[in-house]
Specification:
By secondary structure, the chain is of the alpha/beta class. It contains 12 helices and 15 strands. The strands form 4 sheets. It has a 6-stranded parallel beta sheet with strand order 5-4-1-13-14-15, sandwiched between helices. A 5-stranded parallel beta sheet has the order 7-6-8-9-12. Strand 4, helix 4 and strand 5 form a beta-alpha-beta unit. Helix 7 crosses helix 8. The termini are far apart.
Length: 445
């Protein structure tokens, strides 16, 4: 319960800061360039959540349909017609860097406020911000951690330098002559896994060292020290799509290795304090808050009624959007039941309950239920992890994603094949946006 209270406090702080930023943003020059201030002329209001890898780009190469798509999403002055947020499980850079990269690739201006990386919701986990945390990943992980609010950060390289005898798989990195002294560090309180590292063997070894020594590698391993110190992981993607013909290993594969090693050594399951990024509900809660911010910047006064999540990965993008849709329905159903109960009526709720892992900290509706969208539709494109070339799509839409016979989701998420079934299947992102505008009755110039 203490963890839930802390998360809700963090979310309120985050929500107030985002809303404050939205009020400032509506008058800022950058927003004037980015978003049309003209309110929608149609009663239907909606927002778009775009995955990036496999939807807009393949590695560093833009997918041709992406540029065409975004020409339709902005007016002749380059201002967005509807709220747009880019939701990616990548996390090895800053939002500003990703926004600049997208602006260059898509030939439209993308603001950092429109970009959500896998680690972005860590801003709300304020109960960890003053702890000494070990961070794993690649890119500017220390800068990213500080930007998210973490004050006392230790990188894997810092840990290697403090304990020079820990990293010995690569013979060229072993101490050559005399044994260097151990400098030591104050005990580590928690581990943050941002994304796949470059040297898997080094990170796997040192993270296990930290978990088995209660955060102090000066101690002996003790598998009886269980549960271990908190572990928070971002990005559960087992596979992702770059320029190669076939998918590449993602951070989810690194997590599988870490979980297997820990259990093989200790006999216990590795436990996560939080799993963040798609498909966790907290990720979509955060994305919806950004959509709301963009809608305010557009001058919209009515709440966004529907979200459309466009992705290429059935297990991350489609599963996550469908899970969030269940969450939205459950939030409204709970409110209706409370109202009915207040009127003396009996209520029955036989819907399956979401696990705490699936919620990822979203243990209650953050904000008034009236402000939440009515639903979130999932759209699967065939330019990334999923491809029509792999297998002909059956005519029955309830059996569309037939390739998902093997569960590629994270160990702590339930295997529910219905959650991998998209609302729509299209060839590419341009076709996806055209479909959405047609569904909503908006003209697409």
């Amino acid at each position: 319960m203490q963890r839930i209270r802390s998360l809700k406090t963090g979310w309120k702080l985050l929500k107030s800061s985002c809303e404050g930023a939205a009020k400032q943003v509506t008058t800022s020059p950058s927003t004037t360039r980015n978003f049309s201030s003209r309110p929608p002329q149609h009663p239907n209001s909606f927002g778009l959540l775009f995955d990036i890898d496999g939807v807009l780009v393949r590695g560093r190469t833009p997918i041709p349909a992406a540029k065409q798509c975004f020409r339709n999403l902005v007016d002749r002055n380059g201002k967005y017609k509807v709220p747009v947020v880019f939701v990616t499980n990548a996390g090895n850079c800053m939002r500003q860097t990703k926004a600049e990269h997208l602006s260059h690739l898509l030939d439209v201006e993308v603001s950092p406020d429109q970009v959500m990386l896998s680690h972005s919701p860590l801003r709300m986990f304020t109960q960890f911000h003053k702890m000494r945390v070990l961070v794993s990943g690649q890119g500017p992980v220390e800068e990213v951690a500080h930007n998210l609010g973490f004050q006392d950060v230790v990188t894997i390289d810092m840990l290697r330098e403090a304990y020079p005898l820990l990293d010995v798989v690569d013979h060229n990195r072993r101490p050559k002559d005399s044994i260097p002294p151990t400098k030591g560090l104050p005990p580590i309180d928690a581990v943050i896994l941002f994304g796949e590292p470059i040297r898997w063997e080094t990170n796997l070894q040192l993270i296990v060292d930290v978990l088995l020594t209660n955060g102090n590698p000066d101690n002996n391993w003790n598998s009886m020290q269980y549960p271990h110190i908190p572990v928070l992981a971002c990005n559960m993607d087992l596979l992702w799509m770059a320029e190669a013909k076939n998918p590449r290993f993602g951070h989810g594969m690194f997590l599988v290795c870490l979980e297997s090693l820990y259990k093989k050594v200790t006999g216990y399951d590795l436990k996560y304090e939080a799993l963040i990024g798609k498909p966790s509900v907290v990720t979509y809660n955060y994305a919806e808050l950004l959509i709301r911010q963009q809608a305010e910047a557009l001058g919209w006064t009515s709440p966004v009624k529907r979200l459309y999540a466009i992705g290429d990965n059935p297990m991350a993008d489609i599963y996550g959007a469908n899970l969030y849709n269940h969450y939205l329905r459950a939030s409204r159903r709970t409110k209706a039941q409370l109202q009915a109960k207040g009127g003396g009526a009996e209520t029955v709720d036989d819907a399956p309950k979401m696990t705490s892992t699936e919620l990822g900290g979203a243990s209650g509706a953050y904000g008034a239920v009236e402000d939440l969208p009515d639903g979130c539709s999932s759209i699967l494109v065939c330019t990334g992890v999923y491809s029509r070339d792999q297998e002909d799509l059956p005519p029955d839409p309830t059996h569309t994603v037939t390739e998902q016979r093997i569960f590629h989701g994270h160990r702590d998420f339930r295997f529910d094949p219905t959650l991998t079934q998209p609302s729509f299947v299209v060839q590419d992102v341009k076709e996806a946006v055209e479909l959405v505008f047609q569904q909503e009755g908006w003209p697409l110039e």
